[in-house]
Amino acid sequence: MTDLQASLMAIGGTILVGVISYNKWQEHKAKKTVQRAFASEHDDVLMQPGTAEKKPVADRHEPTLAPEDMISGNEAAPPVATAVDATFTEGAVAPEEAVEAPAPAAAAVQKELPIDELIDCAIALELASPPVSGEKILPKLQPLRHVGNKPVQFIGQREDGNWEPVTNGVTYYGLFAGVQLANRSSALNEIEYSELIMRLRQIADEIDAEPDVPDMGAVMASAKSLHQFVAEYDAQLSVNVHARSAPWAINTLLGALERQGFDLRPDGRLVMPDGEGGVLFSLSTNVTLAEETTSRLTLLLDVPRVTPSHDGFGAMIACARMLASRLDGVVVDDGNQPLSDTALAEIAEQVNDFYRHMESSNVPAGSTRALRLFS
Hints:
This protein has 375 residues and is an alpha+beta fold. 37% of the residues lie in helices and 20% in strands. The strands form five sheets. Strands 3, 5, 6, 7, 9 and 10 form a six-stranded antiparallel β-sheet that branches. The chain has a six-stranded antiparallel β-sheet with strand order 13-14-15-17-11-18, with helices on one face. A two-stranded antiparallel sheet has the order 1-2.
């Protein structure tokens, strides 16, 4: 072996050892990053699973008023098996002293905050040097508004101890982030939660704070429990108006529907407003707008999204009867069977029972909480 060959072998060995060492260092660094993202030394006060047994209230419905799909009248248990033993005041410090937990009367006000202890996972961001200005932290928070299809919100504690969405022009002594645990489509999953924690840690580094991360297993259990509740209470009821003879011309029909009070939304939906910015029920022509005629209209009530005081079911049936009278049609179910007054009265009572169950489950129909969950 020549001196040149020996030198090349020595250089190659040195490079190989260096590459292996660098890879080991990178592996160790990545492992520490993952451990930091998933580790939590704190018990999750807001997301502890409970032991209450849930009883189903209603199976998920396809839109129909057929007798076999009427809403069940079983008793309801609370929607989420969580123990809420903390409020947003816990752990946050006012300028000179710790803020006391709010009295029960104050808790009702906090329900209108964008972070709801029943349907959100609340994560404290412990400020290293409070207070901080809204102008400083808001630009850091604004990019994080969703993980997957779950909304993310931030609230801050003012000098007077009250909580509000973080805004400019205010100084804050405490911060909370909140992510919605479930909606109609799915529960918060591990990937979404991991993304949230990773991005919260980045934000926390930028604003000099430390997130108090809840245990992933507990959060996932609560998310699945909440989604189960949403699935059980996800009830939609429909009624149809069928033409007795010739089909209706779409252009003439749309004009008549708008005069009846329907709004044609940009997405093509026809909705009946409730007078307060919400929707009582919607209407489908069952054909595309490119079609010239239709012989069937379907009115649909999204039960959990309409407050009982608006009587969405009664308003929908009254509208269907009026349309049938003016358009020479008949009110029928999905099987084209005429709906009698007796059948409709029985369904109306089922709807009222359903609303009572939702009320007892702390998710009143048409409330902000219900609108968020059933979205």
